[in-house]
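Worked example 2:
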Amino acid sequence: MADVFAQNKATSAAEAEKIVPRAEFRVFEQGIIEHVKSKMWNGRTVLFKARRMPLETYFLSVHTNEANVKVRDGLLDIKTKVGETPEGYEIFQPRGKFQFPVPQADVATILSHLKAEITLTQDNYTIEDFIALVKESRDLTAVTVEKMRYGFTIDNIICEYAQVWLNGALVETACCESEDYQGMKRVVEELGLSEKANTNYLRAAKQVVGMA
């Protein structure tokens, strides 16, 4: 089982294609942390070490909620939505974690997933160059994200609750994710989340910055 709290490592697009995509179900709601904590102790819960994540930058597009592009651990990280389970859990396929400076061809592919048309004039782009591209675009915006994550598993299903600061605004979130979609469904129900709205980071951040 992958350690979702481990530091990112550079991954090529070709390597990312071989990764089995996980389904994700996430809730953003004040009070959701206490809700999950009240239901997670069932004799099958295994705790992970809590981790305050390094500062991240998410890139939002007015045209899509299906391309999750961010800078994490100094890497330009992208995954895209490739489907949904019958329950509406979103399935995201990793597309690569790129070391800066990122070649123009990879930047062009990432921008195409964001559905942003930007003329690229450099052979390679540093993190500062990429953020400058975003700031110059009317279709894109950058959001700073800080996270204090508390992870656990139930029957090997990856779960967490977390405090998240989106451009400084504090929100609470809880999540289940796994390649085992049926096992994930059972855990989502056990945690009392199944009737709540599935909201990914992109939609939550858009609500905070007024892009929703």
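The longest helix spans residues 104-113. The CA atoms of residues 75 and 99 lie 5 Å apart.
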